[in-house]
Amino acid sequence: MKIRAAVLDTMGAARPYAASLPLKIQELDLAPPGAGEILVRIKAAGLCHSDLSVINRDRPRPMPMALGHEAAGIVEELGAGVTDLVLGDHVVLVFVPSCGHCHPCAEGRPALCEPGAAANGAGTLLSGARRLTRAGQTINHHLGCSAFASHAVVSRRSVIKVDRELPFEHAALFGCAVLTGVGAVINTARVRAGSTVAVVGLGGVGLASVLGAVAAGARQVIAIDLADEKLALAQSLGATHTFNAGSTGMIEAIREASTGGVDTAIEMAGSTRAFEIAYRITCRGGTTVTAGLPPPDATWAMPVVNLVAEERTIKGSYVGTCVPLRDIPRYVDLFRAGRLPVDRLLSGSLT
Fold first, then answer.
1. 205 burial class (0-12, 13-18, 19+ CB within 10 angstroms)?
2. In CATH, what number is assigned to the domain containing residue 148?
3. Could you report the per-residue pLDDT of 261-279, keeping only the tens digit for each?
4. What is the pTM for the complete model shown?
5. How many domains does the chain have?
6. Does 89 lie in the same domain as 22?
């Protein structure tokens, strides 16, 4: 079938992108779903930093590629062997498909699925196939989704069924921003009620972490960013303290406000500077979580004596250490109960 999609032919375009226009809306041919795959009509898709990271080459991927991974839509066709969905079901796309058989999947950690990671790096679906072409040229899939499009063929293991009453523009957020941000708090850091939490970097994922910390019952939620408007939004979402990352004496002020540092600091900016801040504001015996995905060549000099003598913990968090089949329905229920107002993360829309 003919579809329209946003295609990236070359990474590393000059900025500003409003002038270089690295993404082009083009007509593509989309093959029918193969075994274990489905056709989804995309109804809403969010623009995520992981999309930008391919455009600017921070996360190199095979080109050309149809971008987009944070999305929701309607099932329109089922491939052979897909028996647990019906036409018309509403689904959220998840950008790490889980095979269910590799060691991480068997250990209950589908976000670390080995075949899923290999497929994402190669620009294929979980099966190893590519279903997109342009005048006979193969087009790679972005994270198994390629959701900046009218339609997408994806693995059945790349979607989670959701309630048909959930608006698509809200449902799309649960596949990336909410899974990653809230999951970093709940699953990776295991924040407990009454603890203290700081979030460094207030994009959509960082703001989702603020919401997650509030929902988890943290007594202090400290939000840190360079943009004052983001700090104001975080405060309106429940942050108890806000600090501009560019202010003089910021680290000392946070340590004083939290009586020696926070129990958990979560870095969501994707920079080593942000991670340095997160580590330095973590208390003795505390946990520093990073989920920001800086460029591949970024490094950080770890203070080993400090790590040992203060019994610190550093943890990476990918897709919020999620189990999508378990977590998305839970987060949707919290949203509907008014305890996780993820709709506030929407800053605008394009049609």
1. buried
2. 3.90.180.10
3. 999 999 999 999 999 999 9
4. 0.95
5. 2
6. yes
